[in-house]
């Protein structure tokens, strides 16, 4: 009897050991995903929350993030296979489509839903009026990029012809725009956070308007991947979208101070109060998408903006370049 009991305990021990080994081995089975972001910006706060709060790991993903400044460079990294997923403006997927790509780039999870730039004036204008820009030197963004197109869309909305009513400078690399303004170029500049708040603190400029508020809802920054990758790695794309949705909910449910504290490891050279100010600005104007689904009306607004900028060859129906299946599944299943 004792011998039988000993054999039974031995068998249980072996089973328990195997179970524990299986649990421990799950860490080694994390699925690798290489992500390329177009810039390092507070604008993308929910993405950094997904890292810091472990939402990617909860989904069994080992996500490697790299920053590739400029939409063209980030898209090149995606098309070449240097990254699996890219965080870029949705307009870049349209550019690829317009070139007749056999492997189109598909938008599957929206992160930001408005423009993220602010109009910064060198001098305090007192009461701001858009007419003050007429005849001024305006330091804009790269031609064909979403910041520049949304900026021009807003200027035209206020009866300002970007090509005739002001001197528009747009030949400076994205990474150097802030330093160019700081060194004396331009009377007005279009800046993302936290640079806008930093310039205000340092007395180098004054935020006078929001292009995000002015240009309306847009699929401004979206996670996208090649159609071939999506077909071959549907499980990974779904897990990735789940993690992003968890982060989006977390940002909406927590204070700007908590979000700033959480994402601070990604902005080690930026003061916490500046991060908080930037997050607060974006939350107040509804910049961070509350869920990853890309709405058709926002897509159509994007087409209007691109058309106005002369960058659209044809209006592309959202179903050609948008796949909301992963986003809808995340919204309906993530608790």
Automatic annotation (TrEMBL):
Matching Gene3D superfamilies: Periplasmic binding protein-like II
Keyword Heme (UniProt): no
Recorded family membership: Belongs to the bacterial solute-binding protein SsuA/TauA family.
Descriptive protein name: ABC transporter substrate-binding protein
Record's subcellular location: Periplasm
Membrane-traversing stretches: none
Signal peptide start-end: 1-21
Keywords (A to Z) from UniProt: Signal
Keyword Signal: yes
